[in-house]
Design a protein that fits this description.
Blueprint lengths: L6 H19 L4 H27 L5 H9 L8 H5 L4 H23 L2
Helix pairs in contact: 1-2, 1-5, 2-3, 2-5, 3-5
Length: about 110
């Protein structure tokens, strides 16, 4: 199984996990959190597909994948959340949670 072949399921899993993540970090701003997360996924799609497929093929390890996705954290700009005044500490918790959610959803989509 590959991440590219399971992309829609992967995105659905991230969206589902966002509900819980937003409740725990930015309760009042779910719509903005979802918008920022989707912008992040769209901007990272090519890299996530490439790395996920490499992981599924055994070319990289789970640790390698986590490291690569973690490197994308700075790309998660969270413009919508910043615009409504979410504090930097809460933005960072959301951003960190989003990266963890992306990694775990990718592992599930690949079947690891």
């Amino acid at each position: 199984m590959s991440l590219s072949g399971s992309w829609d399921e992967f995105v659905d899993a991230v969206r589902e996990g966002l509900k819980r993540l937003a409740e725990n970090t930015v309760q009042e701003a779910f719509d903005q959190a979802e918008a920022d997360a989707m912008v992040f996924l769209q901007g990272s799609e090519q890299s996530l597909r490439r790395w996920g497929d490499a992981l599924a093929q055994g070319k990289i390890t789970k640790d390698d994948f986590e490291y690569l996705v973690g490197g994308q954290k700075d790309l998660a700009k969270m413009h919508a959340l910043k615009a409504i005044g979410v504090t930097q500490a809460r933005l960072e918790r959301f951003r960190t949670g989003l990266i963890s959610l992306v990694v775990s959803s990718a592992f599930d989509a690949i079947g690891l």
